[in-house]
Amino acid sequence: MKLLLVRHGEISSNINKVYAGRSPEKLTERGLVQAREVSEQLKKYLVHALYTSPVYRAIQTSEIIGEAIGLNFQIDEVFREIEMGPWEGLSEERVAELYPEEWRIWLNRPADLKLPGRETLEDLLKRTLGGIQKIYQNAGDKNIVIVTHVAVVRVLLLWHTKQSLNLYKTIHVPNAGVFEMKLTAF
After folding, report:
1. How many folded domains does the chain comprise?
2. What are the pLDDT digits (tens) for 16-34?
3. Which of 4, 67, 75, 123 has the largest count of CB atoms under 10 Å?
4. CATH number at residue 65
5. What per-residue string of b and e applies to 156-170 under the rule 16 or more CB within 10 Å gives b?
6. Are 24 and 70 in contact (CB under 8 A)?
7. Contact 170, 76 (CB under 8 A)
8. What is the DSSP letter of 26?
9. Host domain of residue 18
10. Pairing between β-strand 47-52 and β-strand 143-148 as defined by DSSP bridges
């Protein structure tokens, strides 16, 4: 099975370095263009199913992709953004001011960050792998697109390459970026 992980198009929080979390922000004009561009890119694959996070920016991106490749999308909660807890809606600068010790951990050892109300990277990975396992059991060797968020893409790529979740910050995931993962067994 080939998984094609797609990060949603740009939102204002991405520009302003704000942790949007699960906010219902819409795509910016640039984000809409990115979604159309990625939908064209995905046409070269024979895609059998399209899944999306329930967060609005991912749904918007999925609507554009689905129309272009001729598939309806399926919303799956397991692909929603990481639960940011008290950081949601705050800028990186503000988080650094309010949570200096936690911010240092997040920058240097992100997998070690434990904060009440905030999902750990390990918990995020377990959640998303559960969803991928279900898809794998039903899809076999088909091509599947999942429209999701930066955190989900990062932890899945690290898992797939058998690297530490503490390398989380080293993975560049642009808006509307496509990342291929070939799964031969699960």
Report:
1. 1
2. 999 999 999 999 999 999 9
3. 4
4. 3.40.50.1240
5. bbbebeeeebeebee
6. no
7. no
8. P
9. 2-182
10. parallel
